[in-house]
């Protein structure tokens, strides 16, 4: 019998890091059936001559918890070669939830991940209470990618402790026992683990911190023991590593990992205020790994930065009262108003900081604000900053930024790196790429829809680090296929081998490039979101079905909820 699909004559990059080789690849029944030369014809064929044939990408840090309920197309990740995504990161999500507590979880997701509350309120029907019921709701919708879900600490804590959780009160032993039971039951139902946040930057728009901020070691250990009880799942942690210092915080998290015996991952970026902290944490995690404790840092391949513009939810003048008076206008009318000399003078004279509702506004400076450009530039030179340009022109940085926003009829963005660009280079990411214990990730796909567009991390990894910086393509593919699948506990994908799931990308590496982000208005209630497309993905295949051709959806929806084998 003919194979369902044969990918003919491509360079096989199998996800192990091994050198690529030219071969055919056959698919039958949603799985890879053969890899070799001269395979018989299939019912469908793809000519991959001169192209790369890789496993589908596995992204372990996304936030499609809401979008997956109402949308079968999980862009932007799906259009950047991702075929499996892990949701429920950073301790935020929508289950478990008691009737009447839904708004609390929505407010937290809105503040932490910049997904507007009206969008979530309209898009989520909350037909669930327990986490297993939430998984069942996810299971009912077909999609273009597979999903794995983590149990979010904030939702569990609010479910058990109510207002006490929101007041950051310590959990008592009864609370801890109840949370452990909920997490264990969720993993038995198919959750891939548990996530928590210990960072002060995770707040509601009202400024209230995440309920998990001050969770004590006994609480984290007690919950983690739920994973040990089931014998499955991993822990995902976000922390500032501030109090009292990075080593002390890491030592506490290491004790939690040792107590439960389950893998742990944590977010690691090169901070701009503590420029050496990432090196200390890298050394500590490497030491733990060498001593048999599975703790791995997850790092971004480029700066995590805000795109500020008139199209998005934020720009440098969003907090200025005179700007707020015209902020409701459509972009063309707003541009016309901002070009009026009187309005311009008023906006430039206003206090743009104290009136802002954007918590990160105080961390933005014109020294780290750059014209984004087309094609987009994620590694801008220091001398191209708004501040440097202002010095050259003999004007204020505010005036220069203002005019940059108005150029191209208000379609432009300013790129503001918040982390991972302390010395105006990507040297930190380059160093982290060299360490076998690190994981490439933190795309936050599905989140920060109004001012961050990092779902394109997988494409950037190949275009910048592969094509521009010369890192071996085989290693870059391994980094986001076999390695991330293993980190998540997925054993049936991430590699090109007979018998494994046929999640595959066919990539024209020479043509691979990132487009400039734009704004879509397709969220529930007409909500907006940044969307960045790419060129060069000839085909993306999920479970043997072609879901995208040349970046366009085919209509096939073979994606499913993946349940952890507890």
UniProtKB/TrEMBL annotation:
SUPFAM superfamilies in the cross-refs: Composite domain of metallo-dependent hydrolases (SSF51338), Metallo-dependent hydrolases (SSF51556)
Q: Which residues form the Amidohydrolase domain?
A: 44-548
Q: Coiled-coil ranges per the record?
A: none
Segments traversing the membrane: none
Q: Which InterPro entries match?
A: Amidohydro_3, Metal-dep_hydrolase_composite, Metal_Hydrolase, Metallo-dep_Hydrolases_sf
Give one Pfam family, short name only.
Amidohydro_3
Stated name of the protein: Amidohydrolase family protein
Q: Which organism is it from?
A: Belnapia mucosa
């Amino acid at each position: 019998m003919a194979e369902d699909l044969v990918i003919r004559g491509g360079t096989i990059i199998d996800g192990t890091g091994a050198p690529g080789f030219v071969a055919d690849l056959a698919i039958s029944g949603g799985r890879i059936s053969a890899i070799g030369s001269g395979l018989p014809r299939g019912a469908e064929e793809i000519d991959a001559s001169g192209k790369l044939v890789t496993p589908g990408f596995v992204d372990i840090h996304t936030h499609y918890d809401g979008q997956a309920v109402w949308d079968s197309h999980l862009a932007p990740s799906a259009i950047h070669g991702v075929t499996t995504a892990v949701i429920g990161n950073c301790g935020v999500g929508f289950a478990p939830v008691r009737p009447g507590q839904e708004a609390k979880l929505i407010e937290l997701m809105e503040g932490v991940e910049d997904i507007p509350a009206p969008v979530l309120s309209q898009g989520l029907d909350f037909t669930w209470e327990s986490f297993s019921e939430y998984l069942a709701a996810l299971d009912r919708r077909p999609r273009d990618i597979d999903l794995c879900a983590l149990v979010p600490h904030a939702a569990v804590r609010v479910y058990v402790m109510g207002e006490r959780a929101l007041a950051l009160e310590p959990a008592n032993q009864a609370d801890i026992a109840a949370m452990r039971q909920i997490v264990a039951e969720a993993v038995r139902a198919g959750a891939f683990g548990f996530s928590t946040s210990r960072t002060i930057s995770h707040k509601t728009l009202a400024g209230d911190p995440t309920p998990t901020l001050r969770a004590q070691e006994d609480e984290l250990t007690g919950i983690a023991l739920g994973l040990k009880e089931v014998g499955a799942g991993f822990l995902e942690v976000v922390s500032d590593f501030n109090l009292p210092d990075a080593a002390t915080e890491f030592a506490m998290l290491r004790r939690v990992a040792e107590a439960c015996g389950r893998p742990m991952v944590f977010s690691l970026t090169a901070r701009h205020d503590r420029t050496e902290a990432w090196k200390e944490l890298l050394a500590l995690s490497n030491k733990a790994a060498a001593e048999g404790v599975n703790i791995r840092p997850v790092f971004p391949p480029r700066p995590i930065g805000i795109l500020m513009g008139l199209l998005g939810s934020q720009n440098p003048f969003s907090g200025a009262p005179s700007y707020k008076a015209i902020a409701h206008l459509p972009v063309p009318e707003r541009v016309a108003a901002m070009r009026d000399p009187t309005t311009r003078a008023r906006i430039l004279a206003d206090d743009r900081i104290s009136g802002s509702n954007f918590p990160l506004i105080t961390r933005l400076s014109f020294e780290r604000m750059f014209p984004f450009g087309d094609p987009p530039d994620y590694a801008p030179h220091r001398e191209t900053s708004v501040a440097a340009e202002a010095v050259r022109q003999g004007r204020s940085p505010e005036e220069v930024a203002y005019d940059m926003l108005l150029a191209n009829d208000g379609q432009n963005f300013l790129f503001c790196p918040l982390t991972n660009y302390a010395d105006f280079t990507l040297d930190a990411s380059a160093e982290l790429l060299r360490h076998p214990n690190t994981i490439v990730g933190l795309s936050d796909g599905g989140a920060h829809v109004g001012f961050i567009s990092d779902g394109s991390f997988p494409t950037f990894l190949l275009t910048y680090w592969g094509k521009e910086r010369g890192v071996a393509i085989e290693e870059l593919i391994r980094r986001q296929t076999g390695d991330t699948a293993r980190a998540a506990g997925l054993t049936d994908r991430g590699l090109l081998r007979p018998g494994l799931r046929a999640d595959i990308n066919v990539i024209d590496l020479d043509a691979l490039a990132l487009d400039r982000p734009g704004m879509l208005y397709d969220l529930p209630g007409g909500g907006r979101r940044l969307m960045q497309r790419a060129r060069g993905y000839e085909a993306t295949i999920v479970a043997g079905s072609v879901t995208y051709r040349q970046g366009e959806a085919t209509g096939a929806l073979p994606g499913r909820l993946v349940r952890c084998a507890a």
